[in-house]
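Progress report, Aim 2. The chain analyzed during this reporting quarter is listed below.
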Amino acid sequence: MTGVILKLLVVAFVFWLIYSGVRRIWRDWTRQFRVEEKQIHARDLKERDAPGVITLERGKDGTFRPPGSKDTEPR
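Predicted C-alpha cells for the chain:
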C-alpha cells in the first residue's frame, strides 16, 4: 500500500513539474511577443507620420486609391 501511494506521489510530482515548466515557457513567450508587438506598432506609427506617406482609401470596387480620387472604374 505504501508503495502505491509513493508511486502516485512521484507521478503527481513529475506532472506538476511538467505543468509548471510549460506554464513558465508560455508566459515568457507571450511576454516577449507583447514587447515585440509594441515595438512594431511604435515603428509603424513613426513610419506613418513620415513625409511622403499617403493613406489609401478602399473604393466601392475594393481597390485602394488615394483619398479624393475620382477614378472609380476598375483597371
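The helical segments are 2-48. The first helix runs from residue 2 to 48. These observations will guide the mutagenesis work planned for the next reporting period.
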